[in-house]
Amino acid sequence: MRFVSPNCSDLYPPNIEMKQFPDGDDYVRVTEAKADGPVFLLHRLYPEQDRSLMQAMLMLKTMKEKGYRTALVAPYLPYSRQDKTFKEGEAKSAEYICEMLSWAGADRLITFDCHFMKKVGEAEYGGLKIASLSMGAELIEKAKEKMGEDLEIVGPDLGASYLVERSGGKSMEKTRGEYVKGGEAYRKIEGMKADFEVKGRNVLILDDMISTGSTMIRAAETLKNKGAKRIAFAATHGFFLKDSLQRLKALGDVFVSDSIPSPVSEVSIKRKIESLVGL
């Protein structure tokens, strides 16, 4: 049985009732009868990640009380970038979120290109079983449709190496400094290095996510200086914060999956969800 949140109505018709009280609290109602087989809940945890996580908690807890063993299908897992701490007293956000989802009733989490796993496959973290699928192959195929088969595939840092290695791609090396002062938690890029040749080649820069675009832009500038002919940018998750989409488009083609719907979501996660979890 599948349950679909209203925020995934672009993928499937929703069958969970969700409203909002006048004070902004969420109202959730799960109306289906008890399921005998596997239960999947499809719900996006981004954008509005704090509210979306609370909605997931309400749905999962309700299903748990109904006796369901629910697999949460959440295309992007928020807070996944802080799975380790750098300073005393920092919150290990990724672990806490996984613990919270497990407590609420998630038997497992199915997601795409989980940032802290940096691989395709299964793991357990924060007491939660996680299956991380990947959209890397689909994004590379889309790039070949646009730019031709003779394409250099590049990961902008070592964290993205698993996305490109299966296709014979190469990874750049990125170094970051300390957190910048101010209200945003952000570590400035101090250097970007590519120990391979791209002169005269079309290049796809592929990562698991694009947020402010700073990594992609720095990577493109480095590769252009090394003689790259044409550059395209692709990622599973496209946030495109601030003016990053416009800045990237000025440098090359940009496309992402619809794990987070955006104007450049050209590759759908729907087929992979259907093939792997039977939705």
What distinguishing features does this structure have?
alpha/beta, Rossmann fold, six-stranded mixed beta sheet, six-stranded parallel beta sheet
Structure, described:
The relative contact order is 0.12. It is globular and about 60 Å long. Strands 1-4-5-6-8-7 form a 6-stranded mixed sheet. A 6-stranded parallel sheet has the order 10-9-13-14-15-16, sandwiched between helices. With 279 residues, it is an alpha/beta fold. The protein folds into 2 domains: 2-133, Rossmann fold, CATH 3.40.50; 136-266, Rossmann fold (3-Layer(aba) Sandwich), CATH 3.40.50.2020. It has helices at 49-65, 93-104, 136-147, 161-165, 214-225, 244-249, 270-277, and strands at 2-4, 17-20, 26-29, 39-42, 70-73, 106-112, 121-125, 128-133, 151-155, 170-171, 173-179, 187-193, 202-210, 230-238, 253-257, 265-267.
